[in-house]
């Protein structure tokens, strides 16, 4: 059961070697994970939209989609048909080429990062020795395409959305990347497989002091990276219509949506891989564990969306630069100390340093509550 | 297997071609935003070349820093310029012919240098892991590494001072 | 402490999420086409015409008051005539354009014969935009049991009033009959003396040219 998909893969390769010429068999062997990802990504995205709608509906005491198919299970297909048949509108003054390219290009990094995710034991498309770095690099390029879309639309709201996206991305990219560094320091490799193998059984990194803090930072930055509530300033519906994809309709809009939800999935998967032990876990097959952890994180993201109002721009920036960044720096050092010290002592030291840091940071970040104003002349007597 | 080698060779030349095309467009395109996008294409192409040469760390860092960071800043700057998308902005001036001659001479010189350099050709590409890069950064190349750090710190302090002085002016 | 509020908020949404699965009062949505809310008695939508025994004999007497009072002028009535062209106390056509009607209920209020009432029907979607929404008399007529069903309070009150009126009428008629009888008897006694002075009912006036049916459009 654990190696189910690996066996299927092997069977297909065996069949290809028997039937096809040599070079074609190699291509088939290469293409299997690609095809698997190309199917898995969009299908995941489709059903994530449904899950999100159902979950938000339940949080708001509604039913959510339940008309198309049992429990609305065919709703994503209906949406897809609707998107495909919708008129594709290009604004007259838009930059036609960039307007066309942006939604296409934005899906590419979203799909590429699937390649370095270990879905289970031996279930990884490419075990790059720079896996995590590759992931971070690829997800970072998304901003460029968001910005292209925003600029190409020739729309003020789009442009504002794009600007916000860039500002947010630049701020959160730094703690996002740096919060993985403790793990890399401890594991000594960028490879996602090596990271997962360094957390056998239930020895997940999240159970160490620096791991808990790192998980916290990484997850928050991940939410910010994929532009989801409460960090959804780039596409703030109530302020910017739809932000960078205001001027997109039909399939182009669907591609943006697809990229966003695939990013949600991949980023949650990366958080699970790096801090929650990836596919490690007792009893259940490895890929079940992986999907379980990933979907838990996705559901938490959706839960965030159902709970929190959008942050103000200055709160967003302040949180990234004044709190998360310092904490990540301290966290890197703490991880190094933890790695070098002996067993019971290292947990205590690391926890102590981190708690002190967090308290100090809170003290520095305390918002001054203004004194209650007394309006001298407001009252007649 | 020969088919595969041929395919990969074609792929490499396509990457080279796209990179060079991106560079050309970055210089010649009238639309400044398109030029910036072409520059991004070039940088991605360079990263792809790194990947082809099995220097994955460099490739990833190239994308992370140049495409994810510097390109964003470049485009952000483009946004703040006036007359974006104005097609009347000239991309060349009356000095283009002397510059062309100079550039050609420089190209000749580079080609000569590349031809003369005794490259050590290995049958197999040496894979340099990130760990090795990190170790050499803090041992062999510690001085340039630290110097870069000092420069960055200087930039940070400078930025803080610039930001601060604005506030002071407002107060006075 | 920072973060307590965050956790509190998340607890609230979590409670909402979980309780929506088993608490009835959380999930108040009625899934409409399958389940429906019980209709409120005072709900009123579009008007309908009422008949007592058979649809050929509606209560409406084609007095045209509702058509005159209707604020958006959506009612068109043509009075029926018998073979001689004498106007009858019933409508030949009675059209209400539901696409114009604004559900004000003025027609119900002004009708002196309690012949038009507001219905509970609200699923009125049609394919045609003009013809299908112009309700003719055969679609408007409904038995009085329907009225009793949808608005029992009003119906009982109105029925009682009608009955009272009818009783009064009957009583008056009986009285009149009795009076007439008495008169007749009295007259009988004097029949030999007084000649019959009862004026003859005039013959029908020459048939007026029938009103041209109101042009719909």
UniProtKB/TrEMBL annotation, chain A:
Keywords: Cell membrane, Membrane, NAD, Quinone, Translocase, Transmembrane, Transmembrane helix, Ubiquinone
GO BP term, pick one: aerobic respiration
PROSITE patterns in UniProt: COMPLEX1_ND1_1, COMPLEX1_ND1_2
Topology relative to the membrane: Multi-pass membrane protein
GO molecular function: NADH dehydrogenase activity; oxidoreductase activity, acting on NAD(P)H, quinone or similar compound as acceptor; quinone binding
Keyword Magnesium: no
Known catalytic reactions: a quinone + NADH + 5 H(+)(in) = a quinol + NAD(+) + 4 H(+)(out)
Entry-linked Pfam families: NADHdh
InterPro entries per the UniProt record, alphabetical: NADH_UbQ_OxRdtase_su1/FPO, NADH_UbQ_OxRdtase_su1_CS
Transmembrane region(s): 23-48, 100-120, 132-153, 174-196, 202-224, 261-280, 286-304, 316-339, 345-364
Gene Ontology cellular component terms for the protein in this record: plasma membrane
Top EC group: translocase
Record-listed E.C. numbers: 7.1.1.-
Location(s), subcellular: Cell membrane; Membrane
Role of this protein: NDH-1 shuttles electrons from NADH, via FMN and iron-sulfur (Fe-S) centers, to quinones in the respiratory chain. The immediate electron acceptor for the enzyme in this species is believed to be ubiquinone. Couples the redox reaction to proton translocation (for every two electrons transferred, four hydrogen ions are translocated across the cytoplasmic membrane), and thus conserves the redox energy in a proton gradient. This subunit may bind ubiquinone.
Family listed: Belongs to the complex I subunit 1 family.
HAMAP family found in the cross-reference section: NDH1_NuoH (MF_01350)
PANTHER family membership: NADH DEHYDROGENASE SUBUNIT 1, NADH-UBIQUINONE OXIDOREDUCTASE CHAIN 1
Subunit field text: NDH-1 is composed of 14 different subunits. Subunits NuoA, H, J, K, L, M, N constitute the membrane sector of the complex.
NCBIfam families noted in UniProt: PRK06076.1-2
The protein, known as: NADH-quinone oxidoreductase subunit H
Source species: Candidatus Abzuiibacterium crystallinum
Gene: nuoH
From TrEMBL, chain B:
One example GO MF annotation: quinone binding
Source organism superkingdom: Bacteria
Enzyme Commission identifier(s): 7.1.1.-
Main location as per UniProt: membrane
Cell location: Cell membrane
Gene Ontology CC annotation, any one: plasma membrane
Transmembrane regions: 6-29, 36-57, 63-85, 97-115, 141-163
Name this protein carries in UniProt: NADH-quinone oxidoreductase subunit J
Automatic annotation (TrEMBL), chain C:
Annotated coiled-coil segments of the chain: none
Keyword Translocase in annotation: yes
Region Disordered, annotated ranges: 165-217
Matching PROSITE patterns: 4FE4S_FER_1, 4FE4S_FER_2
Low complexity compositional bias, start-end: 204-217
Molecular function (Gene Ontology), one example: metal ion binding
Every 4Fe-4S ferredoxin-type domain range: 47-80, 92-121
GO cellular component: membrane
InterPro entries linked: 4Fe4S_Fe-S-bd (IPR017896), 4Fe4S_Fe_S_CS (IPR017900), NADH_quinone_OxRdtase_chainI (IPR010226)
Record's protein name: 4Fe-4S ferredoxin
Species of provenance: Candidatus Abzuiibacterium crystallinum
């Amino acid at each position: 059961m654990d190696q189910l998909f690996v066996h299927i893969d092997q069977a297909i390769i065996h069949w290809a070697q028997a039937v096809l010429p040599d070079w074609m068999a190699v291509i088939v062997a290469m293409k299997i994970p690609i095809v698997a990802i190309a199917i898995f990504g969009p299908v995941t995205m489709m059903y994530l939209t449904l899950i999100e709608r159902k979950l938000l509906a339940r949080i708001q005491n509604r039913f959510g989609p339940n008309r198309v198919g049992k429990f609305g299970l065919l709703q994503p297909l209906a949406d897809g048909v609707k998107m495909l048949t919708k008129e594709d509108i290009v604004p007259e003054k838009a930059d036609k080429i960039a307007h066309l390219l942006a939604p296409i290009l934005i899906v590419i990094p979203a799909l590429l990062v699937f390649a370095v995710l270990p879905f289970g034991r031996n279930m990884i498309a490419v075990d790059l020795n720079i896996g995590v770095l590759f992931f971070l690099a690829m997800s970072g390029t998304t901003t460029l395409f968001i910005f292209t879309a925003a600029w190409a639309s020739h729309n003020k709201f789009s442009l504002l959305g794009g600007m916000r996206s860039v500002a947010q991305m630049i701020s959160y990219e730094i703690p996002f990347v740096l919060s993985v560094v403790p793990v890399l320091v401890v594991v000594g490799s960028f490879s996602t497989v090596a990271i997962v193998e360094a957390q056998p059984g239930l020895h997940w990194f999240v159970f160490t002091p620096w791991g808990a803090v790192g998980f916290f930072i990484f997850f928050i930055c991940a939410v910010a990276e994929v532009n989801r509530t409460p960090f959804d300033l780039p596409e703030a519906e109530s302020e910017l219509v739809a932000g960078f994809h205001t001027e997109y309709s039909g399939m182009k809009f669907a591609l943006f949506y697809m990229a966003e939800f695939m990013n949600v999935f991949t980023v949650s998967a990366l958080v699970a891989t790096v801090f929650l032990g990836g596919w490690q876990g007792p009893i259940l097959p490895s890929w079940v564990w992986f999907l379980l952890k990933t979907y838990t994180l996705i559901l938490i993201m959706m839960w965030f969306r159902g709970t929190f109002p959008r942050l103000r721009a200055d709160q967003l920036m302040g949180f990234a630069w004044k709190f998360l960044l310092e904490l990540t720096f301290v966290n890197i050092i703490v991880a190094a100390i933890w790695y070098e010290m002996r067993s019971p002592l290292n947990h205590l030291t690391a926890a102590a340093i981190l708690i002190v840091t967090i308290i100090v940071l809170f003290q520095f970040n305390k918002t001054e509550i203004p004194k209650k104003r007394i309006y001298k002349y407001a009252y007649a007597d | 297997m020969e088919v595969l080698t041929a395919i990969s060779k074609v792929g490499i030349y396509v990457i080279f071609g796209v990179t060079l095309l991106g560079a050309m467009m970055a210089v010649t395109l009238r639309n400044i935003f398109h030029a910036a996008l072409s520059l991004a294409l070039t940088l991605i192409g360079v990263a792809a070349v790194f990947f082809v040469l099995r220097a994955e760390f460099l490739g990833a860092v190239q994308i992370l820093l140049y495409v994810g960071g510097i390109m964003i800043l470049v485009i952000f700057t483009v946004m703040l310029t006036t007359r974006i998308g104005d097609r009347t902005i000239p991309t060349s001036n009356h000095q283009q012919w002397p510059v062309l001659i100079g550039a050609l001479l420089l190209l000749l010189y580079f080609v000569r240098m590349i031809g003369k350099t005794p490259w050590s050709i290995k049958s197999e590409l040496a894979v340099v892991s990130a760990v090795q890069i990190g170790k050499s950064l803090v041992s062999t190349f510690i001085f340039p590494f630290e110097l870069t750090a000092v420069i960055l710190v200087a930039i940070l302090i400078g930025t803080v001072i610039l930001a601060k002085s604005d506030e002071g002016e407002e107060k006075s | 402490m920072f973060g307590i509020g965050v956790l509190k908020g998340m607890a609230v949404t979590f409670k909402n999420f979980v309780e929506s699965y088993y608490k009835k009062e959380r999930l108040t949505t009625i899934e409409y086409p399958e389940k429906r809310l019980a209709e409120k008695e005072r709900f009123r939508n579009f008007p309908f015409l009422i008949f007592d025994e058979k649809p050929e004999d509606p209560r409406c007497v084609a007095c045209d008051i509702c058509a005159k009072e209707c604020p958006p002028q959506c009612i068109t009535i043509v009075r029926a005539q018998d073979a001689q062209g004498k106007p009858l106390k019933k409508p030949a056509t009675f059209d209400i354009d539901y696409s114009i009607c604004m559900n004000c209920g003025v027609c119900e209020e002004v009708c002196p014969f309690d012949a038009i009432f507001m219905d509970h029907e609200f699923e009125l979607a049609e394919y045609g935009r003009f013809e299908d929404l112009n309700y003719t008399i055969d679609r408007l007529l409904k038995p009085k049991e329907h009225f009793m069903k949808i608005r029992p309070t009003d119906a009982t009150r109105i029925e009682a009033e009608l009955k009272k009126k009818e009783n009064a009428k009957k009583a008056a008629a009986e009285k009149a009959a009795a009076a007439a009888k008495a008169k007749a008897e009295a007259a009988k006694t004097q029949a030999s003396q007084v000649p019959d002075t009862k004026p003859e009912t005039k013959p029908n006036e020459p048939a007026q040219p029938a009103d041209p049916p109101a042009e719909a459009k």
